Amino acid sequence: MQPETTRRTVGDQRFDRSVEDVGNVVALEHVNIRVPDQRLATLFYITGLGLTRDPYLMTGVTNMWVNVGRSQFHLPSGAAQVLRGVTGLVIPGRKTMLERLASVREALAGTRFDFAEGDDHVATTCPWGNRLRIHEPSERFGSMRLGMPYVRLDSPPGTSAAIAAFYRDVLATPAHLTTFDGAPAAVASVGAGQSLVFRETDAPQPAYDGHHIAVYLADFSGPWRRLTERGLVTEESDQHQYRFQDIVDLGTGTPLFTLEHEVRSMRHPLYARPQVNRNPAQSNRVFAPGHEDSPWSLPADG
Prior knowledge:
By secondary structure, this protein is mainly beta. The protein has a single domain (22-265), classed as 2,3-Dihydroxybiphenyl 1,2-Dioxygenase, domain 1 (Roll), CATH 3.10.180.10. The chain has helices at 38-48, 94-103, 160-169, 221-229, and strands at 7-10, 13-16, 25-32, 52-53, 65-68, 71-74, 85-90, 114-117, 122-125, 131-135, 147-155, 175-180, 183-189, 195-200, 212-217, 233-238, 241-248, 255-265. The radius of gyration is 20 Å and the shape is globular. The chain starts with 6 loop residues before the first strand and ends in a 37-residue tail after the last strand.
């Protein structure tokens, strides 16, 4: 039962105000993974998934930013990096998604690319082994029509409670324990409708290879002080940004999981930058004027 202090009634309408709580982490902006070949990355992320290359920033041949609603993939050139887990995306149109992925299979032959239908998602693997789950828009993802609702990390057994405590007490964001795909997990809020999910597994994991995520914080300095007190800040990037890597047990200081967090303030120049998202169904042969853009949210009911 929700505490009475979180509920108010207007006429016969009853509101649960706690549903609107986002926490101190207001947005998951990007997942950054190096790729050895920009051409193959274009085939997978742009042609196959139907996403959109950012037309304004990183437009050369050594890096590519790929828009997914209000989030992005950052794909700088270099030795391949593989996230230890799965990135969840919401992209509408399963049938056309499968057709696009099938269209790049031959061009991506000899790589780790693959895809398969699940009950509620399409599972796909990038040419270098990064795993993604593509979901249709649904009530599960609220108003998100195109976006990055979660990143699921493969965490060691017995770490969920301590990981949740780290996000609650250091980053000041809601975090709770749950079961995800049949295993214990910690879920930390990293924006409206966005989560980091740390799912426990006893499967051997590869060494951390330097991939990172970027998040925006409302209270930027509080977490910085708490991280600094524990010696966890790894980079003082500039006025608007710092980084840390280790998620630790707050009681013992023992590292639980390593994932670099690029932490940005809401005064960062890139915060809430409007992003172009194209409609991948458009082509030069089948074109409808006025339908070039793809909305990233669903309209409100009524």
